[in-house]
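Friendly challenge for the regulars: who can give me the structure tokens for this chain first? No prize, just bragging rights.
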Amino acid sequence: MKKIITCILLFCVFSICLSGTVSADETIRHRNAKTLGMGDAKIAGGFGYNGFVDNPALLSRVGLLRFSIVNIPITLNKNLVEISEFINDNSENFENFGEDEFDEYGNYNENYMSQEEKNAFLKDIVKQEGKWGKLIFSPLLGLAVNIRDYSVGLSVFNVSNVGLKMDRGIYEPRVWGEGYSNTAVVLGIAKPVFMLYPGLTVGVNLKYINRRRANLFQISATDLGDFNKTIEPIVDEVKGNKNNTFATDIGTLWEIPMINAEIGATFQSIGDGRGSSLDIGIAKRMASNRVILLADYIDFFDNNKENIFRKIHMGAQYKYAIFALRAGFNSGYPTVGIGFDSRIIDIDAAYYVEELSKSPGGNDEPRYILQFKIGW
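First reply, four minutes later:
Bragging rights claimed.
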């Protein structure tokens, strides 16, 4: 990728992670390329032991010891790539937009842009207006161990979601940005309770959540041409404000051997101040576990007041050796994914559509996610 694209992606992450203005209105859910390729269904199936952050009962799948030292999914939409390329191709125009025709000594400024050049440049910017470029960065570290029928897990992950939008402005071009960054530390424990009910496992997560939000901010054209000038004022404005909460997840997993399926349910974020969300799911395995079918129904109590189709997630995976093919429906929109999953290194990618409104068809946004993991 071009250098400026890398700079803008880094700026997206820094602008949120360093922002001192906080908010507590976002639900924190880890983004996973494996599950997103299957319609983001994960309550009963999950993928790997890290699935316990969505349902603590999934810890029961841990053998002896599992861990991941690197797990980095990065999601972006097409608009972000287009905006980054436009800024890269026009970096000199951005930097020189506010230059005077003559310097303080009366000498002609070679970087000066004529009014005709400025007007032509602004017309090009207008073509980019209204497009929100999005970046989601979701690193995760995790560890899980099984000790005498008890499975214990510890996970630390972050979900940073940033948006950028071009604007021709009144006096000079600028970029608007906004987003949030949520970090969670999750301690989970699970145990089969077959003596109460055959095939039943119960799990509990204790969560510490830190939320930050970058309110709508803007960057002028001249600063946009210089990455150091872009990032410096943001770093200078770092404050110590924090929004911290504690919450609990309670999850169950019921194995049904006669149909080789599992049913899962989770009360998410009890005590977080937003009303707990009841999520339910089913997973069906076939062909010696090479094929798995998943389906979830999210937010059963409708805390978010969404259309019923926004709550439905379903998908399938076919795995042969270390290769995996995935497909599904995420809130009514198709998803596809592919994976190269060895014992230590996993590389997964997926295409999906995220619905930003309360019902399908309101404001759909195509996205791409790439994930790289090193673990055992």
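The chain has one domain: 3-375. The chain has a mean pLDDT of 82. Your move, everyone else.
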